[in-house]
Write a structure and sequence with these properties.
Layout (H helix, E strand, L loop, with lengths): L4 E3 L2 E3 L5 E6 L9 E7 L6 E6 L6 E3 L7 E6 L4 E6 L8 E8 L1 E5 L2 E5 L10 E5 L2
Parallel strand pairs: 2-12
Antiparallel strand pairs: 1-3, 3-8, 4-5, 4-9, 5-6, 7-8, 9-12, 10-11
């Protein structure tokens, strides 16, 4: 499998906004569901959002759904994650990945990736004043 490349992270003050990008140079993203994940220091990686392929159906973890917005631009072969009203708890490395399945279970998101998925480097988001 080919890795996706994340970008757009940085140091942001609380209350600020960021747009993270997920791109692929060697294949087309359009046919695939794409999920965004994050891993905070000392914690396991968790899914936060996912978007279906052509229909653009979106899914969110309940704790972020009011501040996160996932979208895709198939013409640019990219998927984006906008984060608004950033909080210190959003500090994490953010990853995108091809998803085999996305669904919600109650208020929680479930994003399944292929076994031994080749995660990319991610993009670091630090929320600090």
């Amino acid at each position: 499998q080919v890795q996706l490349v994340e970008s757009g992270g940085g140091l942001v003050q609380p209350g600020g906004s960021l747009r993270l990008s997920c791109a692929a140079s060697e294949f087309t993203l359009e046919p695939y569901m794409i999920g965004w994940f994050r891993q905070a220091p000392g914690k396991e990686r968790e899914g936060v959002s996912c978007i279906s392929s052509r229909a653009g159906i979106t899914y969110y973890e309940g704790s972020v759904k009011d501040r996160f917005a996932i979208s895709r631009d198939n013409a640019k072969n990219a998927v984006y994650l906008e984060i608004h009203n950033l909080k210190s708890e959003d500090t994490a490395v953010y990853y995108c990945a091809r998803a085999m399945e996305c669904r919600t279970r109650g208020t929680h998101i479930v994003i399944e990736t292929a076994p031994h998925y080749p995660w990319g480097q991610g993009t670091q988001v630090i929320v600090s004043s």
